[in-house]
Amino acid sequence: MSARKRSKRKEKWLYFYLNNQLHKTLQTKRSEDLLVAWNFVDGKRVAYNLSDVYMRRQRAYSIPQTAKILNRHVDTIKRHLRNGNLRKPQQIYSLDGQRIPKKYFFSEDDVREAYEFFKTVHIGRPRYDGEVNNSNYLSKAELEALLRNDAMLYTKVDEETFAPVWKQPEW
Prior knowledge:
With about 170 residues, this protein is of the alpha+beta class. It has helices at about 5, 50-55, 65-70, 75-85, 110-120, 140-150, and strands spanning about 15-20, 20-30, 35-40, 45-50, 60, 60, 90-95, 100-105, 155, 160-165. The chain has 6 helices and 10 strands; from the N terminus they run αββββαββααββααββ.
């Protein structure tokens, strides 16, 4: 087996948030510690220190990725965006000069905000007592683990029930 196959490939972030602005990676030069990106808010090409971007960037999530994290259907998230219940995230556009609008991307802060909103939304028919039914919704710790790509451990309580078990990260 070659060394190339054994080495773990580093995840490439094409879209990311920096200073609450959506960027697209255009070019990275590790030898010069340089990252060239397109800033969608300002509409211009910018250059950053690569090491600084790695420390301060936030991941950008598309609507399907956000739906998977929040355990909701894509159409549910789109409906709440359309109705104004969720704040619209920043949108990418074509870079050919015509600026044709394309996909929305949520920042990690936007996902946390959507999580707080969906905690108050009832699933299914309303109850007579007015309580909110969110029995299969994830906890705050599970959300943070998903956003940081941490491992989540579960232990089997009985035949069909699993309980989350958290361990301290090893440094």
